[in-house]
Design goal:
Number of strands: 10
Shape: globular
Number of domains: 1
CATH architecture: Alpha-Beta Barrel
Radius of gyration: 21 Å
Strand content: 5-15%
Helix content: 40-55%
Largest sheet: 8 strands, parallel, barrel
Distance between the termini: 41 Å
CATH superfamily: Divalent-metal-dependent TIM barrel enzymes
CATH topology: TIM Barrel
CATH class: Alpha Beta
Structural class: alpha/beta
Length: about 290
């Protein structure tokens, strides 16, 4: 029979074990990335110097939004020199046709594992079947990139959550795109502007979101305030990660379900870009979830 001393010892051991397991289960982002659109003006002036400063802050992954007249091999050499990798890059919707093979060749040289289309032109979106046509284009691009060993993905803004004929275009893309050919890079700021819950999509489409953009809001603006979608330049509510209203712990606790592998900090129009990405990096580096 168990006596009182043994019983209390069992409770103490169980408590200690649960605490250890709880500590072990606490997670952090191992490799914090940054979308280089945030420092685009600095990149134009000093491409390598800016990448060096990004690395000095502590970033190990970057996502390109243009190579600023550098060849893919030059880009790769500079990345290696500063111990950076570029898992992904953004490319224009217009290159998804005849220019696509060349884009894929460049991506292989730089080392991209993902190529992301960040924007669907308004003239496409306004067509009666525009979102369906975009999905078809994405599937074709995704099939070609898969053969090259690269995953295609799409990055959202807020207009994907503005209903068209009673349906959210984001839902149309997720339904019409082959999940093996087209993944999603969820912009966690813009989906919040669109008044949608990322966790709802993680539950409905598990594993479809290997990339996320991590940027914050001081408050959710009226939809009309960001209606122009000028790449976020007119959204004063955007702020550094951890300085706003988005519950990062709650979202990142579901990272496995979402399939998130890469976290890219972004601020579309910061007053001081390098200071901005440092504030966001420091917050995410401390964050446990």
């Amino acid at each position: 029979m168990m006596n009182r001393r043994n019983f209390l010892g069992t409770i103490s051991a169980a408590t200690l074990l649960s605490r250890r397991l709880g500590w072990a289960a606490e997670r952090k982002i191992e490799k914090i990335g940054v979308q280089l659109y945030t420092v685009r003006n600095q990149m134009k002036q000093d491409f390598e110097g800016t990448l060096a400063k990004v690395a000095e802050i502590g970033y190990r992954e970057v996502e390109f939004a243009g190579y600023f007249d550098h060849s893919p091999q030059e880009v790769k050499t500079i990345l290696d020199r500063h111990s950076l990798v570029a898992p992904s890059a953004h490319v224009d919707y217009k290159v998804l046709g005849d220019k696509w093979p060349g884009v894929l060749d460049a991506a292989k040289i730089v080392g991209h594992k993902y190529i992301v289309c960040p924007w669907i032109p308004e003239e496409i979106r306004k067509q009666p079947d525009g979102w369906k046509r975009a999905a078809e284009t994405f599937n074709r691009a995704g099939a070609a990139s898969k053969k090259a060993g690269i995953q295609f993905a799409y990055h959202n803004h807020w207009f994907e959550f503005d209903p068209v004929n009673g349906k959210l275009p984001y839902d149309t893309l997720l339904e019409q795109c082959d999940p093996k050919l087209v993944k999603m890079e969820m912009d966690l700021c813009w989906i919040t502007v669109g008044r949608q819950d990322p966790l709802k999509y993680f539950n409905r489409y598990p594993g479809r979101f290997p990339l996320v953009h991590v940027k914050d809001l001081t408050k959710i603006p009226e939809a009309s305030a960001s209606g122009g979608q000028n790449f976020g330049d007119s959204l004063p509510e955007m702020t550094e990660v951890g300085s706003g209203i988005i519950d990062w712990k709650k979202i990142f606790a579901q990272s496995d379900k979402a399939g998130i592998k890469h976290y890219f900090v972004e601020h579309d129009n910061p007053k001081n870009p390098l200071e901005s990405i440092k504030i966001s990096f420091d917050y995410l580096n401390r964050l446990r979830f």
